[in-house]
Amino acid sequence: MDELDRERKLELVKKHINSYPDFPKEGILFRDIFSVFNDQTASEVLQELIADHVKSIEKSVDAVIGLESRGFLFGPQIANTLSVPFIPIRKKGKLPGELVRIEYSLEYGKDVIELQKDSLCGKSSVLIVDDLLATGGTMKAACDLIKSCGVDVAECFVIMELSGLGGKSKIPAPFHSLICYD
Ligand SMILES: O=P(O)(O)OC[C@H]1O[C@H](OP(=O)(O)OP(=O)(O)O)[C@H](O)[C@@H]1O
Ligand SMILES: Nc1ncnc2[nH]cnc12
């Protein structure tokens, strides 16, 4: 895909991301990735852009980690593109079996994310995917959790980045976004 083609495709996808002021609370401009899937062309173009990017990652990737819940929309597809397994990180209390977990700070209060203990066996480097980076708290916690298991994070990849919140600077790994909102 040449650069012009890529720019046109990104514009098309961006056009289909609906934005909702004051959702879920006052002051938040909510960027709704689901609206892209409501347009078949935009949805296919997004898949192409994602595949193009992940195939260009130079570091080796042994698994794709998706963050609940909107990371699950992209993780399995990316894992298939790279011919590696998909592994979920979920919010507390959702995964069965033996788990590793990490607590992290939200805008108000704290939360916990969890990973199945055996899921990283034999993996040395992973790609983490989510739909959006805002404050970066969720992605940073995921990186810290993976690294605490002795596994490297080859890249953190999101479709949308809210750059005004400065989340990228918190991420202790290479970071890439397809669409950046100021
Ligand atoms: O960079 P941060 O400030 O941590 O925010 C980003 C996270 O917030 C959203 O998920 P949310 O917690 O709304 O959960 P959901 O995907 O289950 O709706 C988004 O999908 C990211 O996972
Ligand atoms: N502005 C936003 N839009 C969509 N999801 C989000 N998660 C955190 N902030 C968000």
From TrEMBL:
GO CC field: cytoplasm
Record-level Gene Ontology MF annotations: adenine binding; adenine phosphoribosyltransferase activity; AMP binding
Enzyme class: transferase
Gene Ontology process terms (BP): adenine salvage; AMP salvage; purine ribonucleoside salvage
Subcellular localization(s) per the UniProt record: Cytoplasm
Superkingdom in the source lineage: Eukaryota
Pfam families, per the entry: Pribosyltran (PF00156)
EC number annotated for this UniProt entry: 2.4.2.7
Domain Phosphoribosyltransferase: 44-160
Protein family per UniProt: Belongs to the purine/pyrimidine phosphoribosyltransferase family.
Function as written in the Swiss-Prot or TrEMBL entry: Catalyzes a salvage reaction resulting in the formation of AMP, that is energically less costly than de novo synthesis.
Subunit structure: Homodimer.
Name of the molecule in the record: Adenine phosphoribosyltransferase
Taxonomy of the source species: Eukaryota, Metazoa, Ecdysozoa, Arthropoda, Hexapoda
